[in-house]
Specification:
284 residues, mainly alpha, two-stranded antiparallel sheet
């Protein structure tokens, strides 16, 4: 009974944190509206909603990583905190590089569109392959990381390193952190080009990424279990990516306004959630 009460309290706390991060993101959009105008605010909200929805795919992978490495829930929080901090730095590099490439080479939009389409294909057809790849990475980590430093298969509290017979060895938490950071490179190559189809303003692109990722840790603990029951989440995300790819390809001839982008993304995600609840995945 005490465990259930503790779990319920923890879940409510994570819900409160998630709501707080969302409120902060919405408030930041209000500041953009006051300082830079309604068009910039609409672009920010569209980019934020896109990033927030695509972060669900991150959560799927986090679940697999922690499961494969047998890391208890009470230690996952520290790994996520460090992983998200590293991802924020990586996203800044990818965003600045992407914007610079688009400004210098207009044709780069086509490879970017191809990346978005590949991400949509991966969501539609690559779930099992993704699970196998991440599981393999978690297993292989003990060998390829061991070429550089010793790795222990034993979880030692919330530490990334521990002493074993006088030498410093990496724990499974460090392995999880490495896998999270490397897989985020793939996610950045998916999501950054998609956001660049909405806006190429560095502040709006990076702030939408930051706001979406800051609440990712709390969101993980709120919805990780529920995601396995939502049958059509990945299909909905794939439709969102297909829309952004079409938007990027057609940008020379057709301009889709930021409010229209927000509406399309919201409708697709809302419909996905409704259909998933109506026809839930069987839990085995």
């Amino acid at each position: 009974m005490n465990d259930k009460a503790t779990e319920s309290t923890s879940w409510r706390r994570n819900v409160a944190w998630s709501a707080g991060w969302i409120a902060l993101a919405l408030t930041f959009g209000g500041w953009i509206a006051l300082s830079r105008g309604s068009t910039a605010a609409a672009e920010y909200y569209a980019a934020y909603l896109l990033e927030k929805s695509l972060s669900v795919d991150n959560i799927f992978v986090f679940v697999i990583i922690f499961s494969e490495l047998h890391i208890p829930a009470r230690y996952q929080r520290r790994v996520l905190r460090a992983g998200i901090a590293g991802a924020l730095v990586l996203r800044a590099v990818v965003i600045l590089a992407g914007i610079a490439l688009i400004q210098r080479f207009q044709w780069i939009t086509y490879p970017f569109t191809a990346l978005i389409l590949f991400a949509a294909w991966r969501l539609l057809f690559g779930e099992q392959r993704e699970r196998r790849a991440v599981a393999k990475a978690c297993n292989v980590c003990e060998t390829w990381i061991a070429r550089l430093l010793p790795v222990s298969p034993v979880v030692s509290g919330n530490r990334f390193w521990r002493r074993d017979r006088g030498r410093l060895v990496a724990t499974p938490l460090f392995v999880a952190l490495v896998v999270i950071e490397t897989t985020d490179i793939v996610f950045a190559l998916d999501s950054v080009p998609a956001v660049l189809s909405i806006t190429r303003d560095p502040l709006l692109v990076y702030s939408s990424n930051v706001m979406a990722m800051l609440g990712l840790r709390s969101l993980y603990f709120v919805v990780a279990d529920a995601l396995n029951r939502l049958r059509f989440v990945r299909q909905g995300l794939a439709v969102v990516l297909l829309f952004t790819a079409a938007k990027m390809l057609a940008s020379a001839w057709v301009q889709i306004s930021p409010p229209a982008s927000v509406a399309v993304i919201a409708v697709v995600l809302g419909a996905t959630a409704i259909v998933s609840v109506w026809r839930p995945r069987a839990v085995t």
